[in-house]
Amino acid sequence: MKRRTFLKMAGMGAVTFVSGCSTEPERTIYALVESPEDMVTGQAVWYASTCRECPAGCGVIAKNREGRLIKLEGNPFHPINRGKLCMRGQAALQGVYNPDRIKQPLLKTDLGFKPLSFERATRLLEDKTTQAVSVGPNRVAVMTETVGDTLYSLLKSATDRFNSSPPLVFETFAHENLKNAYQQILNVVGLPAIAMDK
What we know:
Elements lengths: L2 H18 L24 E6 L8 E7 L2 E7 L12 H11 L8 E4 L2 E4 L2 H18 L7 E3 L3 H13 L6 E3 L5 H11 L12
């Protein structure tokens, strides 16, 4: 490296370092455009909800500050998990703020995915569904993760209207193979707790 290049780089580094230093910290308070009625700046609010990371449906309490979800904990009054929360439930918060999450409808084209407005996506979905239903029965399929009875009945009423089979429910991390093995070997339906020391 030449002496002149070294001095240029050292000078740029010093200027960059100094520009980041300040005796007066930035004091900006960002106000929400439409803040919730019960929000007090600086005070956390807890909301009871349900974890949807697996079919168990554990109860969670969500810590919220200034309109942002910052922590999930198990709800001690919930009959399923009684205050406990597994690692998937704890990590569910990351899905809310993941920069790679899909934020709007996308249409797959030959050149990749093209963003669409919600209105255009809704119209496109209605048009394609109407075309498929006009061809004959079982031309529209609905696939969903494990959902509650209310949402399932809504999806089933839609498939009935489309003259199609009921919704196909799937669970990405299901234990169906393990349940099947226990049923064949031990004649137990479900996932038993095994005492490994015995």
